[in-house]
Amino acid sequence: MKFRKIYNNYIQNNLFVKVILVFAIIVHLTIITLSYLLFGLMSDSIVNSELNNQKQAMERVNRYMEQKYDWVQNTVQDIYRNSLLASNTSYFLRHSYSDYAQYMLDQNYAGGNESAVDILSYLADRMDADPDVQNILLYSTDMQQLYAFNRNGPRRLYKTNPTRSYIPEIMASEGAVAATPNVWIRGLIGQWNSQLYSMRAQVNDKNTLKNIGQLLVYFDSGMVNRSLDEQRTPLKGEILVLSQDGQVLSDSANRYYGKIFPYMQQVGSLKQTELLDEQSYISTLTQNTAGYLVVGIMPKSAMAEAYAGLKRTIILISSICIIVAVIIPSILIVNISRRTNRIVHFMRKVEGGNLTARLQDAREDELGQISQSFNEMLDELGRHIDREYKAELRHKQTELAALQARVNPHFLYNTLEVIRMRAMSQGAVDVGEMIYSLAVLFRNSVSAKTENTLGEELEMCRLYLELFRIRYKDKFAYEVECDEELLRVPIAKLLLQPIVENYIVHGMDSRRKNNRLFIEAVQEHGLIQVRIRDNGKGIEPEQLALIMRRLKMPETEEQQSFGLRSVHERIELVHGPGYGLSIESMPGQGASVTVTWPAEVEREEAGDV
User: Fold this and answer.
1) Between the CA of residue 45 and those of 38, 41, 50, 52, 233, what are the distances in Å?
2) Mind listing the pLDDT tens digit for each residue in 236-270?
3) Cα–Cα distance between 372 and 57 in angstroms, integer?
4) Residue 154 — φ and ψ, nearest 5°?
5) What distance in Å separates the CA atoms of residue 457 and residue 490, rounded to the nearest whole number?
6) What is the four-CA torsion angle of 221, 225, 226, 232, rounded to 10 degrees?
7) CA-CA distances (angstroms) from residue 203 to 57, 253, 446?
8) Cα 508 from Cα 236, distance rounded (Å)
9) Whose CA is closest to 413, among 452, 456, 444, 449?
C-alpha cells in the first residue's frame, strides 16, 4: 500500500522519474552482470594460477623425493661397481660382525683406502655427505641381524630373533620402496621421530645375484619442505607425500604425521574438488617406481582468500561506476525536467489568457528551440490577433459610419422607390436613375454582410460614379474593366469606394469637360491588383510624400472618414505588410492608385502552412 502511494504520487505521472528509474535499473543490471562475469573470469584465472603454483611446488617435491630415491639406488649401484666393496659387503651380510672384522684385518687394507672397501665406512661417509639422512640400516637376511647408523648416536649391531620380533618377516615381505619406518624397527633402534620416511633397496650377491640383505635409509621429512623454499609466492594449501597404503611420508602442514591419511578414497577420485575437512581442490602426482604419491590440497576457503582482494576491488569499482553512471545522467535529466516543467507552467499561463508571457531560455538545444519557437508563435499569434481585431474594428467603424443615418431602412427604401417611380412617371428619367443608384448604394452600405465579391464591389463603384456622370452630364466619363475569373473573388465591403470617392472630392475638376476615370482589375504573378487611374490635376510631390507617410501612421480619433488610410490599413491587417495601397502621380497628369493583395490560392496555402 505504501509503495502504491509513492508510485501514484511521484512516479506514475512523472516521465523523467520513470526514465531515471529505468536507466538506473539498466545500469545496475549491466554493471552487476559485467562485474559478475569479470569476477568469474578473473577468479578462475587466480584459481588456475594458484593451482599451477601448487603444481609446480608438487613437482619440486617430487623431484626432491626422486633425488632421495636415486641416492639410495646409487648407493647400492656404487657397491656393485667396486668389486672389493661388493665382496666385502657380501661377506659382511653372510657372517658375524667378529668374522667380518677378522676378515678385514686379514685382507691387510691398512696401506690403502679403507673406506673404499669397508662397507661400514662407506655407508658412514654417505650418511655424513647428506644431512637429510637420519639413519642407515643394513639388514642381513642370512644372519638376521641389523646394523644401524644413527646421525645423533653410535652405530650398533642388532640381533633380530624371529621368536621375539617381526623384523625378519617385515624385511622378507615385498613392499613399496618408499614408506614410513616400521614400528618394530623404530622400537629396536630407539628412533621415535614421527617426521621420517624410509627408502629401501635390495642388496644382492654380485656373483650369484641372490638376495642377501636390504638397505634402509631414513630421511628427515621436514627437509622435504626445503624444496618449497624456491617458491616465489607464498604457498596456499598443503602438499603431502603418501605411500600407497596412505602412510604420510611428508606433510607441509604437519597435520598427519604418525597417522594414516583419512581421505585416500577422495584422492583417487577423478573430480576436481572433493569434500575433505572442507571442500577442496585436489591434485596428484604419482611416482610408480618408488611407489609414493604427491598430493596437493587447496581448500576453497584458502582460494577465496586469494581473490578476496579482487572481489573487494571489483565491488568498489562497480559501485563507483554505478554511482557515476546514475548520478551524472540523473542530474542532467533533473535539469531537463526543470526546464520542461517551466515550459509546461508557461503553457498553462498562456492557456489562462496571458499572451504577454515569454520563455527565457537562451540555450540552443531542443528545449531552447522549443522555447524560442513558442515565443515566436506567441508573437505571431499576437500580430494575427492584432490584425484580425483591428481589421474587424475598422470594418465595424466603417459600417457604423455608413449606418449613421439608418433609422428605418425599409422606410427609406420604400420612400426612395416612391420618389423614383414618381420621377419616371413625370419623364425625369435621369432623376429616376440617380435615385435607383442611390438606393442600391444605400442598401449595400447598411447590409449586414462583411464581405462582397470583387464584382459586387466594382458594381457599387459603378453606381456611385453613375450618380456623378448624370450630375455632370458630358463633363465626366468612367470605364470599369475586370477579368471574368476575378468577379467572384471575395474582398472586404466598401474597400474600393473610398478611393473612387477620394477622386470625386479631390481629383475631378468640374470646369473641365474631359474628366475621365478608369478602373481595371487584373491578376498578375499571384497578386490581384485594382488600378484606379484618372486624368485629374494630379498631386504635388510633397503632398504625395505626406500622403504616403500618413498611410503608415495610425488614425486619430478626430478623423471622421477612413479614406485611403482606412483602405490601406484594412488590407495590411488582413494580408500582412507588403500589401495595400500605392499611389503614383505627377502634377497636371492625373493620379494612379493601385490596390494590391494576394490571390486566393496563395492565401489558402499560407493558411495551410
Assistant:
1) 10, 6, 9, 10, 16
2) 788 999 988 889 999 888 888 888 888 888 887 76
3) 75
4) -75, 160
5) 9
6) 170
7) 33, 35, 150
8) 122
9) 444
Sign of the dihedral defined by the CA atoms of residues 160, 161, 167, 171, in that order: positive
Answer positive or negative: Cα dihedral of 391, 392, 394, 398: positive
State the Cα–Cα distance between residues 517 and 506, nearest whole angstrom.
13
Q: Please choose, from the candidates 3, 129, 142, the residue with its C-alpha nearest in 3D space to the C-alpha of residue 74.
A: 129
Task: Assess contact for 532 and 517: CB atoms under 8 A.
Answer: yes
Note the helical H segments in 82-177.
Answer: 83-94, 97-106, 114-117, 119-129, 167-172
Give the C-alpha separation, 284 to 271, whole Å. 12
What contacts 147, CB < 8 A, 6 or more positions away?
A: 92, 97, 120, 137, 138, 139, 140, 155, 156, 157, 158
What stretches of 288-391 adopt beta strand conformation (E)? 292-299
Nearest by Cα to 58 from 306, 219, 298, 295? 295
* 125: nearest Cα among 111, 115, 134, 117: 115
Nearest C-alpha neighbor of 155 from the set 118, 105, 108, 116: 118
CB atoms within 10 A of CB 124: 15
Q: What is the per-residue pLDDT across 73-99, written as a single tens digit (0 to 9) for each?
A: 999 999 999 888 899 999 999 998 899
Residue of 522, 475, 518 whose CA lies nearest to 500? 518
CB burial of residue 508 (10 Å; 0-12, 13-18, 19+): buried
The predicted-structure confidence for 303-323, as pLDDT tens digits, reads as follows 787 777 878 888 888 888 888
**What is the tens place of the pLDDT at every residue in 476-513?**
889 999 988 888 899 887 788 888 888 888 888 888 88
* Element counts in the chain: helices (H) and strands (E): 19, 18
Cβ atoms < 10 Å from Cβ of 87: 17
Closest by Cα among 200, 195, 201, 238 to 220: 195
Q: Retrieve residue 58's grid coordinates.
A: 608438487
Give the type of residue at 67: Q
Query: Under a CB-based contact definition with an 8 Å cutoff, are residues 197 and 250 in contact?
Result: yes
- H helix or E strand, kind and range, residue 279: strand 279-287
Q: Edge-to-edge, what's the strand order for the sheet holding 238-243?
A: 248-251, 238-243, 292-299, 279-287, 273-275
